[in-house]
Amino acid sequence: MNTIIQNILVFSALGLALLFLVRKYIWSPKKKSTKACGGDDGCGCH
Amino acid sequence: MSKQINVALIGNPNTGKTSVFNALTGLNQKVGNYPGITVEKKEGICKLPRGVKAHIIDLPGTYSLNASSLDENVVIELLLNKNDKDYPDLAVVVSDVENLKRNLLLFTQIKDLKIPTILVINMSDRMAYKGISLDIDYLEQELKTKIALISTRKNKGINELKELITHYKELSTEPCLDASSIDESYFENLRKAFPNQLLYKLWLVITQDVNFGKTDRKTYDAVEDFKTKSKTDLKRLQQKETIKRYQFINETLKKGQTIDLNSAKDLRIKLDRILTHKVWGYLIFGAILLTIFQAIYDWSSIPMDFIDSSFASLSEWTKNTLPEGAFTNLLAEGIISGLGGIVIFIPQIAFLFLFISILEESGYMSRVVFLMDRIMRRFGLSGKSVVPLISGTACAIPAIMATRNIESWKERLITILVTPFTTCSARLPVYLIIIALVIPEGRILGLSYQALTLMLLYLIGFGAAVGSAWILNKILKIKSKSFFVVEMPNYKLPLFKNVALTVLEKTKAFVFGAGKIILAISIVLWFLASYGPGDNFNNADTIVTEQYASENLTEDELHQKIESHKLEHSFIGIAGHAIEPAIRPLGYDWKIGIAIVSSFAAREVFVGTLATIYSVGSDEEETIKNRMAGEVNPILGGPLFNFASGISLLLFYAFAMQCMSTLAVVKKETNSWKWPMYQLVIMSGFAYIVALVAYQVLK
Ligand SMILES: Nc1nc2c(ncn2[C@@H]2O[C@H](COP(=O)(O)OP(=O)(O)OP(=O)(O)O)[C@@H](O)[C@H]2O)c(=O)[nH]1
Ligand SMILES: [Mg+2]
């Protein structure tokens, strides 16, 4: 039982991580806003 | 709800527009003591008395309405386009009390567009110091406007300004200069052709080389016919306009402003004489840099070690406390180790930003720009390129956007292309940890070898930028003119609030920006390192036990052998071994190879990646630093991170173009994939060769 839960958690974490990376670097569904850059504005500076 | 008032903040660079914006809106946009900090429109809301609201727009600084660079175009396009949703009901021209004469040029131009205009005279706190006094009533009358004498620093006059904004409808829109006095007959013809249009506006449209993409074309197409005069004629008329304006301004200021030179204590001239001196200037700058790097080392080692060991304990605690299983391992080995790899750098990053922002706020950075300008000229770049190169020490992305105030396209392109060589804060973690591992701790003249190495790396980055700019300048066949006037802002005591905010904001952006990426990458890497295909991985226990059956290994030793066998045959091990041949000549093993590949997402990820890979399957409580120091070169024996491989890695990171976000911004700014691809291939190729040579020579 415990193992199953742990595995489910692992795979959902993996899924979320992949989704994040894909959306950040490869393809993101909505175009980035053209608002001013600065602070944490999704202009990609880290 | 009543209608919002659209208010545009306009003014020369570095007059404090953004400070006024922040004071009005309560926002915290970046303020800095050199021209060109704001390059894009920023917006905010200001609550005025009696429930009225104003929509405030902060604009890039501009010297006049005769635009020469992209960021200045932003202002002109807005003012000439009545249909723009941000077209101001009210223009607030922000000027600086010490440069009133120059500032008023822009004011008179805007006034002549018949937009209701308020004149803000900022930095009133400097008046006593400079011996300046103003006759506000007289100035208001001559300039036909309302004046707010304020100091954002001392928080004075802001409420009065709000009052004035509320009553903007009462402002006169009478122009300062009669446009037709520039050239009677020419303007007479214009008036006949466009009876309903404002002459000065037409004149601006005619003389601008601006791309009026957004303005309503219909009216302005017709104007094309009026470019009857030759370009030089138009230029001459433009100059005439400027002269007329200055005559008017001089006349006005003669009575409205008195400067008592005796009471002006001019420290500035004396300081400038030393700080921008041909020899002393550079020496002092060098000394300041050394102090900074030394301080980054001395001040941050204790918090850094503390954070490192706390994360090691946290990881250990997680493993021992949570129920055993895959997810617990993911937390302890993947997520906590990976995040630790970024969090341990918070102290250094914060100190770096602290120093940068103090240098900016005090006004010293502009002197550095001046010093660098002298060097850059020899390499075909002007001082305007220096600002991006210097702000690139924080991050290349805003730096590349800051190139928008370079008028010459060639120079702008070159600056965009070479800026990523500047040592950005993302390289700092990699440098720090590797220097700590491979450079001995000794000191010479009170300066540690480690701090000197760090400074050397910064200089190498800057040198690479300048050198490649020189080459590009020779190669690129783009014609364009360029001129640069260094403007020296005044020295100011850095405002604690501004400095603290910048440090906080930047550090936060660094940690959260990189944190999200490292979190995701650690999860993926942990997974790839903990699972593998085929027998070799799944039956590792039996394979290894049989292999070492004859040797008398303790349980612990056997366990370690099994885990390392598993790692070698996990997905990541297989991928790592595949790329190993390419990086072996540089002195790296496959794990470093994986860290380098993941660094292309963002350089900061390097340490976290290694931390994750090293901790998979390991049961000991260990800090990242100790784990890296304990790695053994699989072929040669001895520590993996030794002098040769360490230097090779440092140089690789100094030159390689490992930042996808930067590439994306370059694409956006140059409008083509060509330039970012060149950057990626040439910079990384160069990095590879240099790292290869370094390792082969040093090993
Ligand atoms: N002494 C004094 N300094 C001020 C005052 N207001 C702003 N400053 C300083 O002036 C410098 C420039 O301020 P900013 O608000 O960035 O100026 P800006 O006009 O937005 O500049 P750009 O965006 O570069 O055109 C900063 O160092 C501020 O701290 C003031 O009232 N008094
Ligand atoms: Mg600004």
TrEMBL record, chain A:
Q: Which UniProt keywords apply?
A: Membrane, Transmembrane, Transmembrane helix
Which superkingdom heads the taxonomic lineage of this protein's source? Bacteria
* Pfam families, alphabetized: FeoB_associated (PF12669)
- Per the UniProt record, which residue ranges are transmembrane? 6-26
Q: What is this protein called?
A: FeoB-associated Cys-rich membrane protein
Organism annotation: Winogradskyella psychrotolerans RS-3
TrEMBL record, chain B:
Instruction: Name the major location.
Output: membrane
Task: Name residues in a coiled coil.
Answer: none
The protein's GO terms of the molecular function aspect are:
ferrous iron transmembrane transporter activity; GTP binding; metal ion binding
Q: Which InterPro entries match?
A: Fe2_transport_prot-B, Fe2_transport_prot_B_C, FeoB_GTPase, G_FEOB_dom, Gate_dom, GTP-bd, P-loop_NTPase
- Pfam families recorded for this chain? FeoB_C (PF07664), FeoB_N (PF02421), Gate (PF07670)
Entry keyword set: Cell membrane, GTP-binding, Ion transport, Iron, Iron transport, Magnesium, Membrane, Metal-binding, Nucleotide-binding, Transmembrane, Transmembrane helix, Transport
Q: Quick check: keyword Ligase in the entry?
A: no
Q: Where in the cell is it found?
A: Cell inner membrane; Cell membrane
Q: Which residues cross the membrane?
A: 279-297, 335-359, 379-401, 413-439, 451-472, 509-529, 635-656, 676-698
The UniProt record lists the FeoB-type G domain at 4-171
Q: Which domain of life is it from?
A: Bacteria
Which membrane topology describes this protein?
Answer: Multi-pass membrane protein
- Which residues make up the binding site for Mg(2+) 2? 23, 25-26
The residues the record assigns to binding GTP are: 11-18, 36-40, 58-61, 122-125
Q: Where does Mg(2+) 1 bind?
A: 22
A GO CC term assigned to this protein in UniProt? plasma membrane
Q: Which family does it belong to?
A: Belongs to the TRAFAC class TrmE-Era-EngA-EngB-Septin-like GTPase superfamily. FeoB GTPase (TC 9.A.8) family.
**PANTHER family named among the record's database cross-references:** FE(2+) TRANSPORTER FEOB, FERROUS IRON TRANSPORT PROTEIN B
What NCBIfam families does UniProt report for this protein, alphabetically? feoB
Q: What does this protein do?
A: Probable transporter of a GTP-driven Fe(2+) uptake system.
Q: What is the name attached to this protein's record? A: Ferrous iron transport protein B
